[in-house]
Amino acid sequence: MSLQNRLPPLSRQFVAHFGEMGSKWGINRTVGQIYALIFISKRALNADEIAETLEFSRSNVSMGLKELQGWRLVNLRHQPGDRREYFEAPGDVWEIFRVLAQERRRREIEPTLSMLRMALLEEPGGEEERHAQERMREMHDLIDRLMVWFDDVQRLAPETAKQLMGMGSTVTKVLEFKDRMTGRAGRSDAKNTKEQ
Q1: DSSP percent split of the chain into helix, strand, coil, nearest 5
Q2: Which of 115, 112, 108, 100 is nearest to 68 (CA)?
Q3: Could you tell me which of 82, 58, 39, 89 has the C-alpha nearest to residue 50?
Q4: Model pTM score
Q5: CA 111 to mean position of chain CA atoms
Q6: How far is the C-alpha of 25 from the C-alpha of 21, rounded, in Å?
Q7: CA contacts within 13 A on the Cβ side of 114
Q8: Is 98 exposed, middle or buried (0-12, 13-18, 19+ CB in 10 A)?
Q9: Between the CA of residue 5 and those of 10, 53, 191, what are the distances in Å?
Q10: What is the pLDDT of residue 149?
């Protein structure tokens, strides 16, 4: 039985899309499809079921599940009387987002911040290095501020975070109003005009 017959059309489309997007997100196609299948499944799946449904080799599924466990994107379950391992995605989509964001931060952002901190401790050897170091400082400060903001958002209850995201342009308008009231908007606009 082909994949066409193993999954309903909407599920097939979702699984295929996650496979295609996998490489853009830093995972391979197989892992993307495995995760998509687990995510939409009504019940926990074992590796044999995943391999059969997606027509992947058992070894590819095992490696994909290990990678997903490393990212903390799947939970391992055992069923009474069954020695096989079953896998499911966390039920709360917000929790999935949090875990994914934390893992990306640990794997990608923190090493960059560490490198930038080390570079900023170096004594520049000339004007070119001073300029480069200043640019690195700007990058470090921006990433550092984003991480502080990220930590604040991570501490919010899911309902509060969703509410904050739903406010979108309202937050921007409040900040622009605050800038106008404190006179910061004029200085910012003047600086932008001067730089152009």
Answers
A1: 75, 5, 15
A2: 100
A3: 58
A4: 0.68
A5: 16
A6: 6
A7: 7
A8: middle
A9: 12, 9, 61
A10: 87
Q: For residue 147, give both structure tokens.
A: 């991480």
d(CA 122, CA 128): 14
The four Cα atoms 99, 152, 110, 104 give a dihedral, to 10 degrees, of 20
Q: Locate 193 and state its tokens.
A: 């005009």
Question: Quick one: how many helices (H) and strands (E) in the chain?
Answer: 11, 3
What six digits make up the tokens of 28?
């391979």
The token pair that represents 83 in the structure block: 């020695």
The residue with tokens 């600086």 is 191
From residue 70, how far is each of 12, 45, 55, 67, 124 by CA, in Å?
25, 18, 23, 5, 39
Beta carbons of 17 and 40 less than 8 angstroms apart: no
Q: Which positions of the chain have pLDDT values less than 50?
A: 1-2, 188, 190, 192-193, 195-196
Q: Residue 182 corresponds to which tokens in the numbers above?
A: 């404190």
Greatest CA span in the chain, whole angstroms?
73
> Whole-angstrom Cα distance, residue 109 to residue 41?
32
Return left, alpha or beta for 10; rule: phi > 0 is left, psi -120 to 50 is alpha, else beta. Answer: alpha
User: Residue 45 has what DSSP assignment?
Assistant: E
Strands, E assignment, the chain: 45-46, 75-79, 82-88
